[in-house]
Here is the input.
Amino acid sequence: MQPDLKQASSAIGSAIGADAAEFTPTGEKHFVAEAALMEMGASFLFAFLKAVAKKAGEVAQEQVGTSLGTAIGEIFSGLLGRLKRKQPPVGEKDLEDARKEAETAVKAGGLSQAEIAAIGQAVATAMAAELSKRSDATISARVADQVKVEGLKVLTPEA
Amino acid sequence: MSDPTVGAAHRYGTFLRFYVATMPQAAEAGWQAAQQFERLSPEQKEPGHWYRYTGEEGLIEVQADHSGEWHADGKLPEGVDPSLVVEIPPGESAPTLLDNMLALLGQVPASAPNHAQIAELMETLKDLPTPGRAARLVKGFQKTLASVPPVAEEQIRFLEQASQQMVGTELLAGKVRGYDAAGVLMVTAIAREVAKLSPQACSALLAKAAAWDLVAVDEMAARLIDGCWGLKLSAQLTAALDWLRGEGEKAIESARTGLYPEGHPELVLEIYYGGLLQAVPYLLGANSGYYKLSKAPNLSEDDLDTFQHKADTSEEKLVRMTTALQYAVQDVDLARLASKQAQVADLMKKDPKQAEALVREIIDLEFFYPPAFKSVLMADGAASPSVAPTA
Here is the structure.
């Protein structure tokens, strides 16, 4: 994995920490160790980048697409299956492709740093809302905020 | 820890915290199970196996990266090699936690000024797991509750004082079990939420509760949940349980970030594990409350998922706390700390990032030591003689 993506996944994994069970499927009793947290971190980062790409694309085309909350929900429902660890985790290539997709969408729209940051905030807010439907609201907000910080770092390292 | 009195006090406190955390029976069973696991060969203990205790159905999966999953149904998923399952035989019983504590207390000379209190404490520890003690405790609690003026404000003031006394003093002193403290906390949290809606309803509920025929304080909490659910007070119940969960989190955070004395690692551990113990009744209350709600009749699919999920997540934290308290017992002579220091030092030479990840796992995920111990773990044993294992 590219060093900055690895670093971002690890930082998000650390923010999830001992609250990993908040984000694993109901009824399963997991003990998620440090190594697996990085995979969870990568999954959250992947969801963030995909959502930023979608939102940036809509902004660029001045389209009103599906709501961000719905889009995040769809992305997360797919991720939950991966978090069960019964499917392969988000792969390095998936994550790199998601970053490229977000970068392309942002460039195509000619978005400023402030606009990208605003999209990042909107995605983080939608992510926290989606997560808190079944998880602790404070923990959801803390994790979504860390995902935003790390996601924006890999998307706009010069900022 | 060269002072033998400090060493004995540390040992006693370590055994006691685990003994009372939830209930002595659970601690003793966990302690024996840990001894059984320790008797496996080093290869069998390596991650990458599935474990089953002889005669039990559930399977414990430990993956190569140290992640794990509990499979209550005991079924191996398709494709898993059955030879990976290690059966853990019962073997010979190890001295119990109670045996260990009584032996330590028995060392206090008869001429010591506190000998009478020590003798009383020994009786309390023996009595703690008995149904009779739980029943006496709840009867005393009900009697005092019934004597408080039947006004919600007064009743809640009494409940808050009782909660403080239970968690802040009696649990740490080994006079009550985590379940007893959790029961009082649940009753208090529920009463407070109901009183926000209707002080009269709260007062009436508590008056009824003071007259119920009960076997333990946590049964009072369970019956209050039933009563409130029947009165359609689900919002008040979930607010109360969420508050308990939040307070549990705060107690953990406060144990992790506490102001610790410098240069006294053994004191740091005493304070830290005492802090973790104080989180247990809150998490236990949230877990058992949400578990009970998940069994309520006619739940919507969303409510069922939410209640189950909240029961699971509070249980997960609870298990981490009790596991850390059990680990402290296993590390009572600090031999495990020395071994972890050596493991970290070895990794530092090969891959410092992996060494840091191991330290994060030990401190931030397993809660075995407070964050202040990062530097202790990163140093080799020789650099911190005060935490080197004692003979």
In short: The CA atoms of residues 183 and 218 of chain B lie 4 Å apart. Residues 382-391 of chain B have pLDDT under 50 and may be disordered. The first helix of chain B runs from residue 4 to 20.
